[in-house]
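Hi R.,

Here's the chain you asked about this morning:
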Amino acid sequence: MSFDPYQQWLGIPPHEQPADHYRLLGLARFEDDVARIAAAADERMALIRSYQVGPRSRFTQKLLNELATAKVCLLSLAAKKEYDRQLAQAMAAAMAGQPSPMEAAEATPPPVAAPRLTTESTQEPRGAAIARPAGWRRPIFAAVLTALLLLAAALGWSAFKNNEENAAEPPIESGQPAESNPAHPLSADPVLVVQMQEPSGVVNLSLAAALLHGGVERRNVPAGQVLANWAAAEAAAEWRFKLLVPGFFELQIEYAATEAAADAQLVAHVAGQTKHCSLRPTGDAGSSVTDSFVVAVAASGEHTLVLRNAQAMPPDWLILKSVRLVPIER
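And the predicted structure, written out as tokens:
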């Protein structure tokens, strides 16, 4: 049986998937208490982050993106009002007893005096008269499916499904440097998971979701997951993220480094900028420091961050522990 992170981690059974924002956060529908919404979202996100190190870490980033999207929506007065309106419409349509499009297509329409109301996706040719199938006995399933059809059109559910399908992006030509086309991975096998900006404005770039090049590898240590083996000149890690609120950010890099770091740099490519990040020795892998570098991202939407070696280095000179973008208040 395939692993279902929604059911196993969030208690959302398959027949309730895809879940609306309230179900995803474990809240009653139309909850208005902003403190309760924020607390529920933070609790869910903390739970999912606890699974980022482990055999099923690949499921975590998509869930974190969805939880962050739900939190941002429900904590915005205007966005929540529109979302609640659409959700109420979907629920009302389902309560009226409309069958799902699949059931309507499979049923043999008996003659009746008046046509039933349909959604756009199930509209019959003009003059067709269709009654609710007499054999329809699954109102809960139909309600959920009808609601999801309406929500998908307004909220872009397909964007999340595209991530889940893992459609590989085309590789750039062999030998072309990563920075010349940082929006595309160097390998056709993995896909970059889009990581969402959190309501606080922070973008946590998960090491588990990084696309690795030039021999860089993930290692599990007692404190969590790290990126190691930054030896080759082409060693690099790549992330894709989405901003709702652009601006100035601190690129915060937490790492441990040997004495070789005294003359070393990582080169960061983000939003069309190149930033040379000078590092410093920390003594051993157990010690770490966090250095910050200011970057500007002028536009909302999707961007790519690439961190790469400036030159070939000795083996295990660098252990990368975390990378994130923190907004600078101005």
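Residues 99-138, 156-190 have pLDDT under 50 and may be disordered.

Let me know if you need anything else.
M.
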